[in-house]
């Protein structure tokens, strides 16, 4: 997940599905729709395993991605 967050930050965000829906066709990207960003990611942090309080703190500040 850290690599995904690094990619998003490096590439100045991603757009959202409602701005640029997946159509399942092989065409070139629409750079105008692709650059319609809905959020701003400035960083990320790793939350210690089994720490509900750390997870709640992270959720109050930003989007959260989880893995097991």
Automatic annotation (TrEMBL):
Segments forming domain Peptidase C1A papain C-terminal: 1-66
Keywords associated with the record: Hydrolase, Protease
InterPro entries, A to Z: Papain-like_cys_pep_sf (IPR038765), Peptidase_C1A_C (IPR000668)
Keyword Protease carried by entry: yes
GO molecular function, one term: cysteine-type peptidase activity
The keyword Hydrolase is assigned to this record: yes
GO terms (BP aspect): proteolysis
A Pfam family hit: Peptidase_C1
Protein name: Senescence-specific cysteine protease SAG39-like
Naturally occurring in which organism (per UniProt): Olea europaea subsp. europaea
Native organism taxonomy: Eukaryota, Viridiplantae, Streptophyta, Embryophyta, Tracheophyta
